[in-house]
Amino acid sequence: MINKTRLEGKVALITGGASGIGEQAARLFLENGAHVVIADVQDDLGQQVVASCMDSKICYRHCDVSDEKQVEETVSFTVAKYGSLDVLFSNAGIMGPMTSLLDMDLDAFDNTMAINVRGVAATIKHAARSMVAGKIRGSIICTASVAASIGGAGPHAYTISKHAMVGLMKTACNELGAHGIRVNCVSPFGVATPLSCTAYNLEASQVEENCCATGNLKGIVLKARHVAEAALFLASDESAYVSGQNLGVDGGFTVVNHSYSAN
Predict the structure, then answer these.
(1) Which one of 60, 158, 241, 260 is the catalytic residue?
(2) Active site residue 60
(3) What is the value of pTM for the model shown?
């Protein structure tokens, strides 16, 4: 049963909220009492999510996180519309194709870093400014990946960017703790989102089949909703003393020896 009060009175900004993990988080945060601003570049999808919710407590705002001015304006829009900013879920990101390091396109690399690292830095910067100014003991959550812990779990540029994101989370945690602001990451295993399906050129069912075959925890298929539930925990007061953590939603994938077999 959904606890309607877990985020009651809180305002959440979710980047990349028009699809995948961000969409599920937007719906879940709304179900749990939050006012939600979806920020994305997928305008049609974002508006469709808002329309399907049929609730005045959720709205859409176009925002390209690689453009700091758009990020700053989106934070200001959120505060003006709902009165504060309590939760940032910095979820927007790109994956890019799987290619050899020997053939790396450095222009594509720069674009990945601009969105996955610079974009996250911009969202943290401006969200934290708002929280500090408003004396909000807020929560900032970033979507990392199992690729932030190990190599070979994603494209090279994506892996580098996610490692950098965890470092960004840790240094932000160091400074913002003095203001009562918590900063954490969620790091999922493979999820059949539009992002991953496009990157691997596979249908959702194929992505899930591959992940189930290689994953450590059997008997469950990881869904975007599971990652959103982890983000909900980090957004809520249930994690009031949790900061600086990279919460793996990976069924133990990054901590086990995959060459070991008990049989």
Answers:
(1) 158
(2) no
(3) 0.94
